[in-house]
Structures are given as structure tokens and as C-alpha cells.
């Protein structure tokens, strides 16, 4: 296909006097002809009912005007075999319907809807140039202003800082198996010299990203993603791909080529922002955290929440016995303790008491149950769980082997205290399996919001959360100190 110097391709087309340009298109039935390039098409689904709404399209005519197209589910089989992205078509007999108000991919107020007698055919014998593509870019400020409005879907172009937590300068390695399982890729992207944004690519967009990323001999730098939705995730602006999203990199299209050239002329921009401090934990009330959890697009996130401790929840143990190496739960073997984590390389396991305490808290908006794990419990009481358990059994050496240490005074004395809690919400919250919120850290009341990078070194909490999942959450079975476990508990030393 021949190319004009300005980037438009020459196509052949049937000539027709009744051609209507997109800019002149009105509502209602039309027997005239449209000529356009089919830029992209995709299936539109109802995410709640899991039903197919139809097939949507992005079209551009010879004047460079974009418009959205639509084919109802019952007519998709009729037209889909002849549809090819990038090809140029003529369409006769169609209906101009009102464009939807949410998630629009074009500015035009009219949508080209295929009707019962629509005829679609490839253009032939006409030397008219059509643009290959067209983009609608937004800056960080524009995305921020339209966040959560479910309005038009705009495009973003910028340079990548992190890919799934890996620095772009260190040639990230993409695990396609893990990405397929998670169904997403998380990218930190900076557009020119603006703030760095989180960009979530889902399903097909994630697969397209992996394919393109791996196709480059050198690690690509520039990324363009079309029709992204803006959401508030974890209290910060995030961009998420949609079914209509397409992915381009360094030399794929003219905007990425232009951006790559700009970045080369401004090398200091790539070094300007530390990708590890681009997002902050936002302060939220308990009510706002629960509201976030209910959002359809909610993902793992950290929040800061100031709340008052109302009580220590009774009916379940406030600690568990963990592996001294990886902090996973241990079980009793024939002669020693055995770590339940198959990846743990520690052979001679020593049992260490770790916090697994539930506290009831409240603020001016709602009540909640917080689960204290590891260092968070020590930060609240001032003492590690191992010391409190050891002190109890040293003072009560004649307790039976099936006895467990009761809730210590160090925990009970915190009732009535107000603290700033760093809490983490996870898939277990989104799935409704638990309303309990995991506390990863406790801060002084006057501490400013911390950067997300301060959450990176949460190895202990992560392993303890795996234990919670293993036993079914904090309400799990009563922890007893019998046999070897009792002896280990009595020998626990601070910091072991």
C-alpha cells in the first residue's frame, strides 16, 4: 500500500456522489454512503451481567474525523468476517444513534450503528488518502480533573519507570505465566516532566504489552496506551486499560517516535523522578476504606487510618508460633518443629511467637476489626510477642501442655488509645472472605503520609498473611503449646 509523505495511505475506492462526511452526520436513518478506515474494533461486555453488548469500532474518515461505530450482537457474525483493522471501507444504509455518555472513544455526538440492511464493502478504485490513526492525549492534570467520572477515554504517552516493580533501566524480566494468572501488568509511567502515574494493563492489553515488550532487542522505553480509564485506587490516580485499549512502544507509531526523540533530547527527564517514591499512602476514614473495597476495580493497596482502640477481640488466640526463619506457621513433627512453608530452607526450626491479634477500632465514620501482625503488634505494645509469651510461661510453669498464654496486659492497656494505623487491603477483602483489615505499621499521630516504597520491605507481614490464609484467617483454630511447642515457647528469647 503506497504512502503519502504526510503519513496517509493511498487506497482505491468505489466512487459515490452520496458520500457523507462524519462531521456532517446527524441522528436518524441514512441511505447515503460513508467512507472510512477501520482503526480498531472490540467486543463490549456488561461486566455485571457478563453479557455481550455488541461490537464497538473506532472509525476515521478522509477528513480526519473520528467517530464510534456499533454492531449489535445478532449482526456480528454477518460483518465480522470482512472486518480487518487498518482496512478502508464504504458503508451504506446505517443509523446515526446518539453516542453514549460513558467511556466514549470519540468526541462525535453520533455513533454509526449498523442496521438490518447495512452493506459493508472494501473501498476500491478511488485515490483518496485516509489517516492511519488518530489519538486523543491527556496530561496528568487532565486525567486528574476527570478522575472517576466515567466520561471519555483518552490516550496516554510517556516513558516507563517501573514494570511490575522492576526498574526499566535494569531490563525487566516479564513472567508471562504470573502475568496470565494475575491478568494484569502494572506500569509506572511519566508523561514528559509531569508526575509519575500508575497504569494497569488488563487481559488483552497485558498480553499485547508482553508480546511487544519482548519483541524489542533493546528494552523499550516509550509507551502509548489508548482509551484508558481514570480511577482512584488506594487514594491515588491510576489509569486502567479498557477493552478498546491498544498498546504501542518506541517506534510503533508517529507519537511514540516523536516522544522517543523528545526524550533523547531531554535525557535529564528520565532521571528526574525516583520511581520508588511516586505514589503515597493516602489517609482515609474506615468508611472510605470499606467503600474502596466495594469498587469493582479495587486492587491491593495501603492506607493510613487514624482510629481509637475500643477493645481486644476475644475468642481467638492473639499469637501463633512461627518459623524463626520465614515466620510461617510451624507444625509439630515427631522430634522437632516443622515449617509449613515448602520454600523455607531452614532445617533446624525454632518456634517464635508472633503477633496475630485482633482489635476492635472506631473513628467518626465507622467501626472495624484490625489484625496486628509481626512488628505492628510490637509497635503498639512496645514488646515483642515472644517476650510476652515467654514471661507468661516462666511465671506459670505448671500450666498444662494444652494451655495458651492469655491476652497480655500490654495489649489490654492499649484500649482507649488513638493511633495512626497503616492498613493493607487484599484480595481476601475484595472477595468478601473477611472484613478484617491487616495492620502493617503503626505511626505517631503527627507522621506525614509515607511513600509507597516504605511498604516494599514487608517480608515478615507477607509471610504472616500467608499463614492467615493457610488457617482460614485470624479466626482460625486455637493455638496450643503442647510437647515440643511448649518447650520452645518457654525457651523463646527476645529477637530469636
UniProtKB/TrEMBL annotation:
<feature type="domain" description="Replication factor A C-terminal">
    <location>
        <begin position="302"/>
        <end position="447"/>
    </location>
</feature>
<comment type="similarity">
    <text>Belongs to the replication factor A protein 1 family.</text>
</comment>
<dbReference type="InterPro" id="IPR013955">
    <property type="entry name" value="Rep_factor-A_C"/>
</dbReference>
<keyword id="KW-0862">Zinc</keyword>
<keyword id="KW-0479">Metal-binding</keyword>
<dbReference type="Pfam" id="PF08646">
    <property type="entry name" value="Rep_fac-A_C"/>
</dbReference>
<protein>
    <recommendedName>
        <fullName>Replication factor A C-terminal domain-containing protein</fullName>
    </recommendedName>
</protein>
<keyword id="KW-0863">Zinc-finger</keyword>
<dbReference type="InterPro" id="IPR047192">
    <property type="entry name" value="Euk_RPA1_DBD_C"/>
</dbReference>
<dbReference type="InterPro" id="IPR012340">
    <property type="entry name" value="NA-bd_OB-fold"/>
</dbReference>
<keyword id="KW-0238">DNA-binding</keyword>
